[in-house]
Design goal:
Shape: globular
Distance between the termini: 26 Å
């Protein structure tokens, strides 16, 4: 786990190499072993200097998140003591009186980078793929090993802000430019250069401030900048946080954090507080401040929910833990895409970037060429951003065949249909494609709402038919919802998962129903916004409350983005399907809004520049002023003050989140979703559902199922059946259960 040796020149090398793990991580066992090796080196009179490095391709990936997720957070004092020991060990490392070099041979993140920061010299292997940084904020935490104190003291608050507050990874070149790394050398010279620095004559002898009066002078290289007399925080006059520039930095920074997070994420605020408070104190006191805030975040359910979903949930999905076993992996070379509109061209773009040959088909050559032009534009953007060179972009575009000829599909491994959301149009495309496709090819429909089993009726081989629901814009949205029809084979599911992994998207697997999972939950969110509008809640209040609840946009803005006329068409298709089958159409109660906007006012959303918002030429969208004419606001809601208004705002935020969570629970009960984790990953990655909750199912656990059911019952009585909870939740509430009470991360097959 930790290898230790001392050479004849008195240089000790501590090498991290944890068995049975792809990367080194910080956990109780590894840290105990490391602390022992460190103490041995510091106490050995023969040891003149210490090198810390890794025996793996990466350095240290950070804390073991399984350990973090399993922590008992009920006792704050116990947690304080536990994480104070980590701080003390890093402090012992940098104050032990011997110079220490971090020989960074690969990526060092989180606690792994904090070990490096607590050394006296940092040398990294020159590799453009190697990253260093503090990503903890992305999972609801802050750097708990001194990162909030060492980084600002090394490079100043403004340079530290994106690293700490955004979790921005740095290349080793960028880190060297900032002063976080001292040297870059070829990988083969890393250890030799580290040893050369340690064996060079000391340039100065100093008495470190932490050693107290009467202490002996030691090698000046073994003393950190903040342990030297007269140290000043860089960037502020006199190093004082309360200097005018310092005050302006923190006032502006706090406002910026609030603006970007809408106050729903506790970690960025805690990081700002750590930096502000810590820099006004002696270094060791600053570390205590950091530990206090770290423990407060650990005890907040936000961090565990975010870790569970945004780390383990994503990891499980990307490793294809839902893939049926025993099916050979499908290797893809050539695919077909039916429909060269924005969705089809987007699917083709991400596929060609993954190295696939593309056949892009539309009704005529002009339409197909327009789709290829979109691909060229997207690749051109990457060239401009220097993320792709022109020669590679040209080679990718050459792999795209744009044509109206279905015969070009003859050697495709899979075809994704992305034509108009109409059952008849899709059926025609299916038959034309299958006439040319190899018998073994998979046929996938990109429908967002139409049941896959019904669409498969047009197929001569429904066992090879599956749904692949992409999200717009495909180039940016990471999720693909895979829909299994009644006759879809397990082999087809496995091969579809292989394709999604090939194009570097995150898959979730759901069973067939109208709207599947994401579209129906998205519809629930939009419909609740419509209901609120009819109730007299001002449009701006609806939209702002959604964002303050953690949603990226409000329901009215989202409806504009997905297209109001598409919502109307989906509703109309659903109504016609119900009538055709002799069933009663169960509407959402907001069909009249769609009729008004689409049929009477011809406001289709962003696509025609007219929706709930206006889209003027200057690009700054604004709510359509005449909404007030059709949906007059209740003055009591508009002009209310004090506690009553705040209570109403809290209620609106809850309604917008709870209506999605209830529908997600219904999807679990009806087996549309087969796993709570898919509901959480899908709701965040597909719908932008408030990430601080960990997802729609995690929200229910955070609130507590018993409390959630009681609140939904009150909402159902006041606002309608959309809040009626399924029997699954009532039964769980009665038994005191939770969805993640005994959660253990799944292992990929």
């Amino acid at each position: 786990m930790i290898n230790y040796n001392v050479d004849s020149d008195g240089i000790a090398t501590i090498t991290w190499d944890m068995p049975n793990r792809a990367m080194n991580v910080l956990n109780e066992a590894s840290m105990t072993a490391y602390a022992g090796a460190l103490e041995t080196a510091l106490k050995d009179d023969k040891v003149k200097g210490i090198i810390i490095t890794s025996g793996k391709d990466s350095f240290i990936a950070g804390a073991d998140l399984e350990m973090i997720l399993g922590l008992d957070t009920s006792d704050a004092s116990k947690l304080m003591e536990q994480f104070s020991q980590l701080q003390k060990m890093f402090r012992r490392q940098e104050t032990g009186g011997k110079p220490i070099v971090a020989a960074i041979n690969g990526t060092a993140l989180g606690g792994g980078f904090e070990i490096c920061l607590a050394t006296h010299y940092r040398i990294a292997a020159a590799n453009p793929k190697t990253k260093v940084g503090q990503p903890e904020v992305k999972i609801g935490l802050l750097p708990g090993g001194g990162g909030t104190q060492r980084i600002p003291r090394l490079i100043g608050v403004q340079n530290a802000a994106p690293i700490l507050l955004e979790g921005k990874d740095l290349t080793v070149d960028a880190a060297k430019g900032l002063g976080l790394i001292h040297e870059l050398v070829p990988a083969g010279e890393l250890l030799a250069r580290a040893k050369a620095w340690l064996t060079a004559p000391a340039t100065e002898q100093v008495v470190p401030e932490y050693a107290g009066k009467g202490a002996k002078a030691i090698d000046g290289r073994a003393v950190q900048p903040w342990d030297r007399k007269g140290f000043k925080v860089p960037g502020f006059p006199g190093g004082q946080v309360w200097s005018p520039p310092g005050v302006m930095t923190f006032i502006g920074g706090s406002a910026m954090v609030r603006g970007k997070t809408n106050g729903v994420y506790p970690a960025p605020k805690a990081i700002m507080s750590c930096v502000y408070e810590g820099l006004m104190l002696p270094f060791d006191a600053g570390l205590k401040v950091e530990t206090r805030y770290f423990v407060s975040l650990l005890r907040d359910p936000v961090a565990k929910s975010m870790i569970r979903t945004l780390f383990f949930g994503l990891q499980e999905a990307n490793k294809l833990v839902r893939r049926p076993k025993g099916v050979p992996k499908q290797e893809y070379k050539k695919i077909g895409v039916l429909g060269a509109g924005l969705m089809g061209a987007g699917i083709a773009t991400v596929s060609v970037q993954a190295g696939l040959d593309i056949v892009l088909i539309d009704r005529d050559q002009a339409a197909a060429d327009k789709g290829k032009a979109h691909i060229a534009d997207e690749l051109g953007k990457l060239v401009k951003r220097k993320r792709l060179d022109q020669a590679k972009a040209d080679a990718m575009l050459a792999k795209v065949t744009a044509t109206p000829d279905f015969g070009a599909l003859k050697d495709c491994d899979i075809v994704i249909e992305a034509v108009f959301e109409n059952r008849e149009v899709k059926a025609e495309a299916t038959k034309k494609a299958e006439a040319a496709l190899p018998k073994t090819a998979v046929f996938a429909s990109n429908t967002s709402t139409l049941p896959i089993t019904g669409l498969a009726e047009a197929s001569s081989r429904p066992d090879h038919f599956i749904g692949l629901h992409f999200f717009s814009p495909v180039e940016k949205m990471p999720l693909v919802e895979i829909i299994v029809g009644q006759k879809t084979s397990q082999e087809t599911l496995a091969r579809a998962l292989d394709f999604v992994q090939k194009i570097r998207k995150t898959p979730i697997v759901v069973n067939d129903s109208r709207g599947f999972f994401t579209s129906r939950v998205c519809g629930a969110f939009i419909s609740e916004g419509h209901r609120m509008l009819k109730e007299g809640i001002p449009a701006a209040m609806i939209e702002n409350c959604a964002r303050y609840a953690g949603m990226p946009v409000g329901p009215l803005s989202l409806n504009d983005e997905v297209a109001i006329d598409l919502s109307w068409k989906i509703m109309d298709q659903t109504r016609r399907d119900a009538e055709a089958s002799g069933q009663k159409f169960e509407g959402a109660g907001t069909e009249d809004i769609l009729e008004l906007m689409v049929k009477k006012l011809e406001r289709f959303g962003r696509k025609n520049g007219k929706g709930f918002y206006e889209y003027p030429a200057d690009g700054k969208k604004r709510l359509w002023p005449e909404l007030q004419k059709y949906f007059p606001a209740d003055p009591a809601l508009l002009y209310g003050e004090g506690e009553d208004k705040r209570a109403k705002e809290d209620e609106i935020k809850k309604r917008l989140l709870y209506v999605q969570a209830v529908d997600t629970a219904r999807c679990l009960e009806s087996n549309v979703l087969t796993n709570p984790q898919d509901g959480d990953v899908g709701s965040i990655m597909g719908l932008g559902f408030a990430p601080q909750t960990g997802g729609a199912i995690s929200l229910i656990d955070q609130v507590g199922i018993k409390t959630f059911v009681a609140e939904c019952d009150a909402f159902a009585k006041a606002y309608g059946a959309q809040f009626e909870v399924p029997k699954l939740l009532r039964d769980m509430a009665a038994k005191g259960e939770s969805f993640y009470g005994k959660y253990q991360p799944a292992k990929a097959a």
